[in-house]
């Protein structure tokens, strides 16, 4: 048995395969004994023939037996010899393979590797990645398959399918059997034929079973090798297929020996220093942790194996160093000990999934300005679902390129991926994940701009978050042997000084594909990205679009572009930003969500962070519970442009800036000079209606953080032109305004007066108004002189604050006129950027004789509403304000309510029809009209107000401060519940409501009953009630009829048209 073990060494076979080979040999020995015994014991005496006389029995038996043998064993090849050859040859193949493979297995064994590490390191580039063991194993499988098929075929050819027990024997006197001769027939019987048949079938079945098993194993390992190239490498094949159970038990033993219980005091101290969020993540990490394949250490040493220690240390450092990336440090750091500390964010606290689209997005800048603003977040078409890191990298796409403009979140996305890996949230070995990584390396290209040639080992050692300046030999071997367990993140090709050389190795190879060979980073990166080194490793690369041409020769499995945030994600980001101070967060969101320009700019995460930080500073200054921020759009953009440029432009990378650097409006002289070219280009682009610029126009500024590289444009079939655009339309408009601010007074006055009505210049002039504050040579009158002074008179009974059926039409003086109202809105937005302009315009408005402000159907946004309120809040003669059909939503309503709360306001009539105010807007209005508001008439047609909004309004008119006489809630979504709230309100003696319009709601009979009870009360002062189209039947009509018959009812008009009232 020992000799058999020496011939067929278990370590060279899979456990099941080794057992099968041993069983095969044992079965062969058994069959050999059976057939040898049958061959030697079978003679003519076991052959019985009838019809022979006593003295001729032996002669007849012998002659008939010879005839039997000639007929059924024509080749005269003994069966036992066939069995010997069958089992011996196949066994010999296994023995030869075992002897050949044992040397390789011994070299890969832990003892050999630990005894001669230096020798192994010399050969690791070739020996460790050799496929000799896999090839040898496959060869023996193929040989066994061929021999198995061969012997099954030979058995059919050499021997009959069935040895018959009965044999008719015809004998002549001479022993021959000519057809015309006479002789004697003998019926013979072979007593061993049945047993022989059974054993021959057994040989065939055994051959078939073993052949089928070998075929299954062959198909399995070939499929696995096809899917996973590293499976064919010696050490991987040994661990994964030949001896997995031994490897697992060895690892388990090593793991048990190397995991002593940590001291309780140390564990408690570590928990005390962690934040609750980090403790939760570490607990989650421990719950999900699985066994990592360890390289065994010496049994007597109770320490962690180097691989396990390396992985744990790497993850620990990643958790510590990625908790608060430098990109999330506030630009407004305070002096230590002075005031509140700055709001620095953690990655887990603020990270919001990005909109990522496959391939490079296309941009269509046709359409009006509002459509152009939407392009930045709609360019991905329907594939704009927010994605997490695990959606980008998977088992099908392991070599991935991420493209994105400056500040779009490429680095933070990769950092979040790395951090999630460290906490075992993604790419962790489990039944759900198809890929997982035991080692991850984060390499920033800009860190190697000054580096000389380096090896792969040196590159990984120099990566971000590396636990030490040396990679242990066993760890290094594991990386080389298991590249599919390795994640490499290369961040910022555009920041690499030698990026143009990437791809040269494909055409003129200068360096061998060896892990120990030193070479420049551009060559090393290319070999990793193309699989020439660490084939099977996952490689994730990021770049700005400006560097795409440098990596055209690298074939990526998938290319993604990060588009940034959608408006929903911006809101999510703001909520996370101010999670601990919700009042400040609500204020910031109102300011961002109410301004389409700022909201659109916030699609860039870096801009969103800068704007949120700036607004948060203002919220702290004015008080965290302040409902508004007196912030100028120009001030926000001046701050955002400066911080964004200094943080993301190439020339300032790695430079630390102080709070004073960001707070000052002054730019470095070299930056001012570059901005002059940007300003001219931005101005000419808007003037010509162009948002896209050619490569020649931006020459020298291609790498600017303020530009985005678009897909090239084909000018001819054989020529393409580079295309660029500003990172956002509002950025182009801001720089165009800077260009205008440098004009002389006469030129600027002519330009503004000529183009003030052109929509494409509106935001430019708004920025210009803010920038003019710093220009002593540019008087405010350049803009304020354009304010229209024309008025027009209108007359209608609807303009009366007190409503009666027989009232006379009310005459009002309207400003601005219908043809000037859009100009007035534009000027109001400009004037809002300058306090000096506000004062000038307010004086002008007081000199104009009007009492009605008409801005209906002007497409006002919430920020426009803020501008209107800011300018007219101190103009006391205004009694009527028409803002119908602007669709500015609850945020716009919030701004309008500031006017109602203003002590100087004399507003008594307000039309807010068709503005989608919703219940939130109704709540703001209810709060305003409770605050000694002078409002008598409020029109809220078509505002999607439900019973919740009706309840808010009911509580307001129930207050003795409310002077409302007319409330129009036509075409809303008010049910009988809302009607009940309103009924309870008009029952109260504080309610002064005379006219209530609930046309086209859905109050039904129940709501009609509540209203009938209300008007039946002597406290109710209601004179007119409209209930048209409210699904009221004869039941509801009956309630109302009984109510108006009561002496307490003061109702004069009741409209029930278009209901379901029958003759009953």
TrEMBL record:
The lineage of its organism: Eukaryota, Metazoa, Cnidaria, Anthozoa, Hexacorallia. This is NACHT domain-containing protein. The chain crosses the membrane at residues 12-36, 77-97, 134-158, 199-223, 598-619. The keyword Transmembrane helix applies. Residues 248-306, 319-341 are annotated as: Disordered. GO terms for molecular function: ATP binding. InterPro entries: Connexin_N, Connexin_N_sf, Leu-rich_rpt, LRR_dom_sf, NACHT_NTPase, NLR, P-loop_NTPase. Residues 398-547 form the NACHT domain. Residues 248-258, 323-336 have a biased composition (Polar residues).
